[in-house]
Amino acid sequence: IIEIGALKIDSEGYEHTFQTFVAPLSPISDKIRKITGISNEMIIGAPLLKPVLTQLIDFIGDATLVAHNADFDIPWLLTNSIRHHIPLKTNKSICTLKWARQQKESSCSLGALTKKYGIAHSNAHRALADSVATKEIFFILDSKNIVPRPIKPISDFNTLSENLKDR
């Protein structure tokens, strides 16, 4: 984890954001730099993962977690919260990738969906930019009302995360 970004909409409809780089355990590879645009120079002085996770989990509170490919993102969050003994609440999750597939979108990647629906996504693969794009996709899929939101408790990811925590 080299960057964490999240967006939250409160009960009055106001958006709040959380974004920070995270000090990695090893230098950023050329492959990751090419995908994200994040260089080793950008993360100099970045905080360690544990305090960032504490802040993120406080930011999340009891909100429903919406992610594009929750089966990838949520286990990372859970595994690291288990490793650092920072408990999550009993949140629920919604996967916009799974939801797009259920709604028979022709191509379900975040990039394809943002292109199809004209959503600006100039910083693809950056944490907050992907969060903003996912929010837009969520509202588009929700407005279609074709299939219900695929809500899943994050506890469904516990077994996988427990197995990953020691790796």
Number of distinct beta strands: 5
Query: How far from one another are the termini?
Result: 14 Å
This entry's quaternary arrangement is: single chain
SS field, number of helical segments: 7
Percent of residues in β-strands: 5-15%
| Secondary-structure class | alpha+beta
**Largest sheet at a glance?**
3 strands, mixed
Shape: globular
The main sheet orders its strands as 3-4-5
In N-to-C order, the SSE pattern is EEHHEHEHHHEH
What's the alpha carbon Rg, rounded to whole Å?
Answer: 16 Å
Low-confidence stretches: none
- Helix content bin: 40-55%
Mean pLDDT: 93
Structural account:
With 167 residues, the chain is α+β, with helices and mostly antiparallel strands. The protein is 43% helix and 14% strand. The chain is built from 7 helices and 5 strands. It has helices at 30-36, 49-60, 70-83, 96-102, 110-116, 127-144, 158-164, and strands at residues 3-9, 15-21, 65-67, 92-95, 151-153. The strands form 2 sheets. Strands 3-4-5 form a 3-stranded mixed sheet. A two-stranded antiparallel sheet has the order 1-2. It is globular. The two termini are 14 Å apart.
Short description:
The chain has helices at 30-36, 49-60, 70-83, 96-102, 110-116, 127-144, 158-164, and strands at 3-9, 15-21, 65-67, 92-95, 151-153. With 167 residues, the chain is α+β, with helices and mostly antiparallel strands.
